[in-house]
């Protein structure tokens, strides 16, 4: 900061408060991450057409780690500092290993519409996790809008899935908790290092586990090479597991974890659209009404 003018040092608000253009860019990046994540469940369903669940989980993580590790090596990025290892471990356990494993196991018996319930709860869970982790307390209006949006999404997705609870719900609720922790910790780390390095190092830390696990799964589980299977695997590995998280963590660093997490209120609706287009699933005319309600809630949280 010494190379800056004295005007920069005169007021700490200039450093801590995000500029309007930074908030706009951060919101756009977080929204791009949500768009990438909205394809995860349909892509996983495609992947399961050709691969077993353990093969899909381990190969996607190993492939994403190899790409991330290659980028880190090519750009000669220094290894993370020791103080960052704890946070990276939380990201690795929650986002790299926990969420993909639990949701893939759930999607063996659950439809993507039913699995979208967990995504409807994720913004609220992430905001709560962030508040507990950082001690930050969002306003009452923020929480009211967040809860209202979560209720709207939950009501819509439960109705779309027929209101039936399945054995996969245990996997989905566990995935919800570990993913919220990973998102929160990753958003905090992205304030100190580029977002792509956060997920990149988390993936690389898991490589000694995921690479041999992928080889073992391929040798034990039957698989068949299909267009859907390969496309689904490539998307969950590179789109959801790496590129989506790169822009997502960058967006969270710019606008804050609670505000970014509320953009995910739109994710279940996007997932249902992709499910209809890619998997042939159908949903009722309630979708536009729910979409409007969710967008109103997102607008309120953004202004709070």
TrEMBL record:
* Compartments reported by the entry: Membrane
Q: What is its main location?
A: membrane
Asked if the keyword Transmembrane helix belongs to this entry, the reply reads yes
Q: Which Pfam families match?
A: EamA
GO CC: one term?
membrane
Domain EamA, which positions? 25-155, 170-300
TM helices/strands, residue ranges: 28-48, 54-75, 87-107, 113-132, 144-165, 198-218, 230-249, 285-301
Q: According to its record, how does it sit in the membrane?
A: Multi-pass membrane protein
Keyword set includes Nuclease: no
Keywords from UniProt, A to Z, are: Membrane, Transmembrane, Transmembrane helix
* Taxonomy, superkingdom: Bacteria
Family from the record: Belongs to the EamA transporter family.
* Protein name per UniProt: Drug/metabolite transporter (DMT)-like permease
